[in-house]
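REQUEST FORM: STRUCTURE PREDICTION
Request ID: SP-0412
Submitted by: Lab K.M.
Chain count: 1
Length (residues): 241
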Amino acid sequence: MRNLITKLYQLAQSSHIVSTLLEPAHIIILALPFVTLLIALIVLSGQLHSHETLSERRIVSTYSFIWYLAASYLLIILPLPSRSSVAALTSAEYNLQPFYFVTQLKLLTGFQLSNPATWLATFKTSTFFQPFFNVILLMPFGAYLKGRHHWPIWLITLASFALSLFFETTQLTGLYGYYSRAYRMFDVDDLITNTFGGFLGAVALGFIPKNGGKPIILVNLIIKIIPSIGVVLGHLSLTGA
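STATUS: Completed
RESULT:
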């Protein structure tokens, strides 16, 4: 039996697809959906202990939020390059100049805030879309913490910064030492735009119409928004977009 298992393992390693999947980083990615389910069960069990009952809305919103975080994490680490290609990189590993993307916008597109004629060309460039989507990325995070747990704005902003710092540290450390160096840049602009996104998501809830002096079921809004964004981010991540 031992010889049979050894031969099967060697056969698996000889297959490019299977050997790729056996790499530690890919195993983590494949296990992520199961990990999110496990975390959700742990969180829900804690909620059941404190609330005695769990509504369908609470179950869906909790799991969708955990999946959203997992999908966001995949987005910032994928696609995974080979170790050899990362070792050969000579590009900068970090940017500590705040609002460097604004300088790049002006340099590459001639963007001028006082000249609307330059705005359209700017909005079409990747230099604009990267910080723009960094803002969008953590808007559901801030909205969820505000709408579901009623955190104060300052705490949501701090939590958004902490989550963004975790993402950036993941990139700077080369996926916690899996790579010999960073394969994506640690960017202070990402910290700024992510944090602003979390803040903006929380503030945006204040513009939701009131109904009888009470917000219109904020949880329903969160349940609709977060799974949609999570699925999109997850799809983009898994396809390496």
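NOTES: The chain has a mean pLDDT of 75.
Reviewed by: T.R.
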